[in-house]
Write a structure and sequence with these properties.
With 342 residues, this protein is mainly beta. It has one domain. Helices cover 7% and strands 44% of the residues. It is built from three helices and 22 strands. The chain has an 18-stranded antiparallel β-sheet that branches. A hairpin with an 8-residue loop joins strand 18 and strand 19. The longest helix has 12 residues. It is globular and about 75 Å long. The protein starts with 9 loop residues before the first strand and ends in a 6-residue tail after the last strand. The relative contact order is 0.18.
Amino acid sequence: MATGITALEKTQIGVEALAGSSTDVPTTTWRGNFKLKDTQQVVFPPERVGIFGPTTRSYVPITGSEGLFDGDATYEQLNYFFNAGIYTTTPTTDTGSGYIRTWTVQNTSADLYATTDLGTLVVENGDNIQVLTSRFNFVREMALSGKQGEGMMVTATSQGRDPSTSAGFTAVGSTDLENPAETILFSKVSLAIDPSTDTAGTTPKTETILDSTLNFKTGWVANEARDGRTDFSNIKRTDDEITLDVTFEHNGVATAERDAFKAQTERVIQLKFLGTALSAAGTYTYKTFIMNLWGKWQTFGSEGLEEQNGDNIYRGTFKVAYSAAAASKAQFILVTDQVTLP
């Protein structure tokens, strides 16, 4: 009898044209790790029927699935998580070959926050023995982290409906295997910090950032077990939560930001990453990923000066929050040569 082989595990994803549709299929291979978990809950109700121990009477009040995407953050595939965790954005055409995708995290009722605004995912996960398929997947939370000399990493927790099973994967072709997605390198980061009312990216801060982690609870949650379903009937937008952890060299930048922490001065932080050259230069010359974040330092140097590789460092946690002065909270920008996602 054949057995499941770890090397033959894979995950395929695709954007649903209609959230939860039973006909939408995956279109590309996820270039990382993923495990789809069946979250069905089984209850054996307590009863006294004249025998020792429980009987086999049971019921299933809740079904569903969730998974953790874990791997390199790439210019090509990071789009999927922002579309499924913020809203689906329409790319604009640069003057060169680049296509610019921008996500502005919701602030008011005038922003996009309906279920139909999301690019929910169909996900297939399995091996050579069996494949599980989950639909209506949205991103509940995600994290982006990196440090000197390494690639950026992404984790994204998805939640979906009750999974179905099949004997094999949908055919998506091998294009993404022959032309792998490009990893975002943390060493290519440019940090800028400014007063919240200034344009993000105005004042670069060189030779100061050692590592960073963005933690993002998207605010999308499931309406569990209602409207005739044991998995979720729909999803809704609630409060989001975003923080940025940064490690600084102990230099003039760090001391200035510690002062901003003590005074609780609003700041706008930009992290900008550059990749390889686009086919043709325009406003953007290179593949680009930008995070623009408004808010205040929640902590800065709470452990005092720390040592790392012979350097003194400060660690800070930046609370991303709506700035009335800037009328902004958070924005993410991705620029690639892709007019459509694979």
